[in-house]
Amino acid sequence: MLAIVICLLLTLAYVTLMIAYSEGWKRQKDFVMPSSSIVFSAKTEYQTATFISIIIPARNECRNIGGCIESVLAQKYPADLFEIIVVDDHSEDGTAEVVKKYADKNVRCISLADHLAAGKKINAYKKAAIAAGIANSNGTLIVTTDADCTAPDSWLLHIAAIYERDNPVMIVAPVIYSSDHSVLQMFQLIDFMSMQGITAAALNLKLGNMCNGANLAFSKDAFIRVGGYEGIEHLASGDDYLLIMKMNSFSPGRISYLKSVNAVVSTTPQRDWRSFLQQRIRWASKSGKYNDPKLTVVLLLVYFFNLSFLLLLIGGIFYPEMFYTAGAMVVIKIIVEYVFLLPVARFFSSTWVLRYFAFLQPLHILYIILAGFLGFVGGYKWKGRNVR
């Protein structure tokens, strides 16, 4: 039957992709600080000269922004070589007031509203916030993170070290979710961990450029040279993904991945299924918005592979052999994804969550189908704003 043959071909292609990702993750070497760069308490032998501006866009984050700022202030990095700029995006919960308590510690809070033309309607508030922060920054290197993130104390040191070693225009670094062991948060942890592993592998294999704005660094000069967000400012999402596309087009081969447990930023997962789906629709909405044929092909393969399960289940009502095909494909999917995820989970010290991996597969397939479809055709709600 033609449908079964097509599904089996999709399975073969998917297995090949996952094997490639496994190899790409393995080939992405751990970053090792230069031998003279040994960290001792609050001091380091590594003599850096890079001034870093940490840009944190924040909207209604009064519960999280304090912890984020504290983790940056605790960095084992020369205090005179970094600044923190929080851009308040029309918060209604006192976010700015929390930030202003740190004004005596080289932390600035600027209002996005003060940097928007009067009466101008915009769709991409986060891009506008980051751009405003950069315009007010003094750093050679820009580091972006989110208001609900925390970083280890040698985070900036490792970013500066790879920047000074490789001279990249952009540095992609790892992010991980915290988890309270609920089904929702474990599901998010597995899904996000997979995306992080694919990000590193794809960069290594040159199968597409991916990144996450919660842990991203780039040269301020390069940002200016590519015109910042010019040309993509009308798209609500993509402050990270669409920017890396511009950076790579401007300077091919100068994107570095910082694979180090000392550079992993931790962030909080979504609190409910609705918020989770809205977030993933937002992420999916930027796919296909920039010319990256390799990544487009990969995304289409993943989507149609997962969609084939739904089609086989429907077809199985009339042709029972389709049920067996779907069952065999699920087993294959679990095996190849587990082989890929295991070393990634070890890197993130999260192997414990893989014991639930197989049981969450049906949910994962459904979510890929739904988020991919809605991200392509529909709008979403994020931070209290309706986006179309």
What does this structure look like?
By secondary structure, the chain is of the alpha/beta class. About 45% of the residues lie in helices and about 15% in strands. The strands form 4 sheets. The protein has a 7-stranded mixed sheet, sandwiched between helices. Strand 1 and strand 2 form a beta hairpin. Helix 6 packs across helix 11 (about 320-345). The longest helix has 27 residues, at about 320-345. The two termini are about 40 Å apart. The mean pLDDT is about 90.
Brief rundown of the structure:
The protein has 388 residues and is of the alpha/beta class.
Helix content: 40-55%
Provide the β-strand percentage band. 5-15%
The CATH class designation of the domain at 29-182 and 208-270 is Alpha Beta
Order of helices and strands: HEEEHEHEHEEHEEHEHHEEHHHHEE
Described by the principal axes of the CA atoms, the overall outline is globular
**What are the low-pLDDT stretches, counting only 5+ consecutive residues below 50?**
none
Strand order in the sheet with the most strands? 5-4-3-6-10-8-11
How large, in whole angstroms, is the Cα Rg?
21 Å
Q: Determine the structural class based on helices, strands and strand pairing.
A: alpha/beta
How many E-type strands? Answer: 14
As for the CATH topology of the domain at 29-182 and 208-270, it is Spore Coat Polysaccharide Biosynthesis Protein SpsA, Chain A
Number of helices: 12
CATH architecture of the domain at 29-182 and 208-270: Alpha-Beta Complex
CATH homologous superfamily of the domain at 29-182 and 208-270 - what is it?
A: Spore Coat Polysaccharide Biosynthesis Protein SpsA, Chain A
Distance between the termini: 40 Å
The largest sheet, given as strand count, sense and whether it forms a barrel, is:
7 strands, mixed
